[in-house]
Amino acid sequence: MPVTLPETIVRRRCAALIPYARNARTHSDQQVAQIAASIREFGFTNPVLIDEEDGIIAGHGRVLAAHLLGLDEVPCIVLAHLTPAQRRAYVLADNKLALNAGWDLEMLSLEIGELGEAGFDLSLTGFDEFELGELFAERTQGRTDPDDAPEPPAHPVAEPGDLWVLGPQTPAKAGRLRENRVRGATARARVISLVQRRRVSRAWRTILPTVLSSKKRSRLGRAV
User: Fold this and answer.
1) Under CATH, what is the fold of the domain 10-99?
2) What is the pTM of this model?
């Protein structure tokens, strides 16, 4: 299948462009302001993609930024070759494909660092102060071996056999707890202790079989 290349860039009045009603991509006021600042600095370098009826396919944020800047017209490319289904799919693909890219952090640090040294306004790159701080944060080694485990306290808060009261359990909560099955001998011991000390609710009865082995359930007798 031959690749379609745009032949011309046309201009359209901002007021005439129609946003896609089911556009799933959102643009906050802060992000629109960032796009506007980028257009002011670098120019309108990325045309808006539209259909034959001036419906926006890609470039909703750029059109909002153009309104913010008071632009009357914006450059556009008409994608007349797309089918209705292709247009809808490209609205998603145009945004998602860009998000799937990654960063070479070493190269990114080098570029951002040199731009900063040259006095360039780094906010125009789209990175906020927190992201820039994380990028240049000094990485230090910890004071302990990451594989070292601390000694258990002399008087731990919880011990095997302790009873932890969780409050009333509805069937819905019971279902969620059943999905997150309790594992380990210590956990099973706590459940056994719970059943032995007091009668459990009907919701809990649906959870216990997923936690206890058949051998341990037989030890509970009439408590269950």
Assistant:
1) 3.90.1530
2) 0.62
